[in-house]
Amino acid sequence: MHRKVVMIGIAGDSAAGKTTLSQGIVNALGADQVTSICCDHYHKYNRKTRKELGISALAPEGNYIDIMEQHFRALREGQSILMPIYNHSTGDFDAPIYVKPTKYMIIEGLLPFHTQRMRLNFDVKVYLDPPEELRRAWKIKRDTTKRGYTLEQVVESLDKRQDLSPRYIQPQKRLADMIVRFYPPEGNLAETGGHLNARLVLKPTIPHPDLTDVLEHGSNGYKPALRLNLGRYEGVPADFLEIEGDIDAEKANDLLKLIQGHMPPDNRLSADRLGRYQTGLEENRSYPLALAQYLIAYHMVTSGHVIQQMRGEMM
């Protein structure tokens, strides 16, 4: 495959935080450099037909997998696509839009790693894995405030789809290079926002940055704000990066600056735009989210640097 575009895949169950994670990276690098698209647009049926047929959007048969394979590869090779548009507010399809790839592409959705042909397009594969109780709370809040569902409809949908995620969505976890898990801290299990802890499983399938200097400056008073432990994930050696949810703004910004030092010098990433998310009309900030986004952006920028060097050698 002729690589022209850096592609990052972000997989996870419904309301796992995929759009929040990807949108922060788009904002930090700039929409002129990054385009994020959602696999939901490749649903095969509208909401009414799915209900009539008894087919879930989580199942492969409810999506145009073959079209995703074609479009992912076209974008990877720098070709434009005509992308279908699924409207979550109406549950139906709008007119397709023309998508011209930018330097970086983020593909987020339920099934971006479902086939090998899809997976081969990605420089980095990320899986979002929040605890089920937290994901349910996020989904109820999102679907009742933004997608026009009642509480009863969301709960019914969650109950009906319980067996589908383990069958189709969760198997993608073992295919990911990074697994990101936001979870409530001990003593505050009701936390659902900016003070969630984060755990990143960094598998050796891609070269992660040496964070020694970051960890040395990670003390957060009485306990370290960051910890890195070597362990095993499903029998494979991996690094486990723990980020405390109560990390203060000053310490977090110091650590972001240190990570910036690992980036190629010509990057245009604005750390101030990382970690931000909306609660209604109010903008909030999570520093564990910002640090997770920064590490993903690191892989995007360094992969882009490699592609640029390869092009220069070929000229």
Describe the structure.
The protein is an alpha/beta fold and 315 residues long. It has helices at residues 18-29, 47-53, 65-76, 116-119, 132-145, 151-160, 164-169, 212-216, 249-260, 287-314; strands at 6-11, 34-38, 81-87, 92-99, 104-109, 124-128, 178-183, 197-202, 226-233, 236-243, 276-279, 282-285. The strands form 3 sheets. Strands 2-5-1-6-7-8-10-9 form an 8-stranded mixed sheet, with helices on both faces. The chain has a two-stranded antiparallel sheet with strand order 3-4. Strand 3 (81-87) and strand 4 form a beta hairpin. Helix 1 crosses helix 10 and helix 9 (249-260) runs parallel beside helix 10 (287-314). The longest helix has 28 residues, at 287-314. The protein is globular, with a radius of gyration of 19 Å.
CATH architecture: 3-Layer(aba) Sandwich
Count the beta strands: 12
Outline, from the CA principal axes?
globular
Tally of contiguous helical segments: 10
Enumerate the spans where pLDDT stays under 50 for 5 or more consecutive residues: none
Quaternary organisation: single chain
Beta-strand content: 15-25%
Termini separation comes to 18 Å
State the major sheet: 8 strands, mixed
Q: What would CATH call the class?
A: Alpha Beta
Q: How does the SSE layout of this entry go?
A:
Elements: E1 6-11, H1 18-29, E2 34-38, H2 47-53, H3 65-76, E3 81-87, E4 92-99, E5 104-109, H4 116-119, E6 124-128, H5 132-145, H6 151-160, H7 164-169, E7 178-183, E8 197-202, H8 212-216, E9 226-233, E10 236-243, H9 249-260, E11 276-279, E12 282-285, H10 287-314
Parallel strand pairs: 1-5, 1-6, 2-5, 6-7
Antiparallel strand pairs: 3-4, 7-8, 8-10, 9-10, 11-12
Helix pairs in contact: 1-10, 5-6, 9-10
